[in-house]
Amino acid sequence: xxxxxxxxxxxxxxxxxxxxxxxxxxxxxxxxxxxxxxxxxxxxxxxxxxxxxxxxxxxxxxxxxxxxxxxxxxxxxxxxxxxxxxxxxxxxxxxxxxxxxxxxxxxxxxxxxxxxxxxxxxxxxxxxxxxxxxxxxxxxxxxxxxxxxxxxxxxxxxxxxxxxxxxxxxxxxxxxxxxxxxxxxxxxxxxxxxxxxxxxxxxxxxxxxxxxxxxxxxxxxxxxxxxxxxxxxxxxxxxxxxxxxxxxxxxxxxxxxxxxxxxxxxxxxxxxxxxxxxxxxxxxxxxxxxxxxxxxxxxxxxxxxxxxxxxxxxxxxx
Amino acid sequence: xxxxxxxxxxxxxxxxxxxxxxxxxxxxxxxxxxxxxxxxxxxxxxxxxxxxxxxxxxxxxxxxxxxxxxxxxxxxxxxxxxxxxxxxxxxxxxxxxxxxxxxxxxxxxxxxxxxxxxxxxxxxxxxxxxxxxxxxxxxxxxxxxxxxxxxxxxxxxxxxxxxxxxxxxxxxxxxxxxxxxxxxxxxxxxxxxxxxxxxxxxxxxxxxxxxxxxxxxxxxxxxxxxxxxxxxxxxxxxxxxxxxxxxxxxxxxxxxxxxxxxxxxxxxxxxxxxxxxxxxxxxxxxxxxxxxxxxxxxx
Lengths: 318, 299
Description:
- The structure holds two protein chains of two kinds.
- Helix content of chain A is 79%, strand content 0%.
- Chain A has helices at residues 2-29, 34-42, 47-58, 64-78, 91-126, 131-145, 148-163, 178-212, 215-222, 227-249, 251-265, 270-279, 283-311.
- By secondary structure, chain A is mainly alpha-helical.
- Helix content of chain B is 72%, strand content 0%.
- Chain B is globular and about 75 Å long.
- By secondary structure, chain B is mainly α.
- At the A-B interface, α1, α6, α7, α8 and α11 of A face α6, α7, α11 and α13 of B.
């Protein structure tokens, strides 16, 4: 187990470094830069002089490999992501202030998704090819096709029209006002998690169908165990591995989707931060954000793989 | 023998052939109703895109100044937007952008994914390991953020949107192709082809590729749904195909949002269009998978 962990973490390091490199190269080979955006935003007469001055300030007039080496060195040596061109604030500080919103959004979507999809998937599997099966199947296919920004839009528009309900503007931390915070996050989480619900529902159903045909499930029924015990203890736990793998794989999609959901609901999270940074060509901020997202994805993948051992004790790591 | 009989029955000429395809279509519909529904959705999408000028009641860009933000009625079936443009016509023309971007980007993503996946899986060795690490790294990027960065940097145009979306699909396609090729390459027919003097290149393209065509076509359909979704998302964030082109995603964003409370139909129809288009391709992908690859059924 320990060897496995060390091995996996060692393997993750080149992946994350590669992400950092690819992001850096991508940002720098594409035309246009932050100095250009900043110079244009001033509307000054002499764009060229201003542009050159900004380029020098930002260190963009140095050769690419020097910039890369400098950035990498600070990152590895001091854990320093640099300063945002836009806000002049440390990238790390920006991330720390924006990350909780996105984490809550992503975690909320996952919890909501699992709470809805897993029980429903189990029920669908036990009612194979009857109405109780068709309805969730149709709903899961629909949820996989409806864009999350449309769901988010409807969540904003419909309550306003039907109930004259407008969410209170501004973000409230869970630790200050839990009730207000949950109210604020419920619809965004549902919009972000819609696709996850569809995918999980579908996977739970098909995985359960397979497990329910196993001999040990028949034995469990034959022993006269209650349906509840057979389904949850004997069948579901064994059916969960592909489901967990699916949810773990959706994390990158959730973090990407947070860009859209946060912008629709006006939540100050990592997605919104990254979106603004991309518009402004704010390299240090984009690089920091993407590196963090990649780290989260890689970490979640590791946790996903480790959870297999808990779900199925036959799986050994090493 | 069976083949001979088949041919004899076929000799009825064009009329018989027509009757037979109708019969086959009927059987297909009964046997795979979901597949038939998906096919109908996709064909409708293609039809609307191709014949947009004929089908749409108005020019999608013409502003009917006497009918601004009019609710759906007999003149404007889907209502009008805040410029007085007919939403139905804009939705129909939107199918063009959606389908153009979808098909072009999927073609790009599949071509690159197949090339990389086929060659690295077949050749193996250090190249394979290096490319795999690169693909793993690419999979840790959220596709939307990646595409967003590319389009913003290159400037929002049709071609950059296509490039960006095609790019994000490469690692996924590569993985599917790689997996299938790895499963195929130890088969006897590959050894036989090698023994009979075929070049590596010929073995890859003429022997292995046709045998992994089914999974490639299946992901092609599913990826088309994903591409349409991503195009709409980019347009929604304001970095898609630029206005005044009627893209479904941009019809739900920007200034439109200010007027949605007063004219909710503006928020409704483009969303339905995106959902139906994606639904059609997703279901088609499912139906193809059920038909060709029963092992993957329902997954």
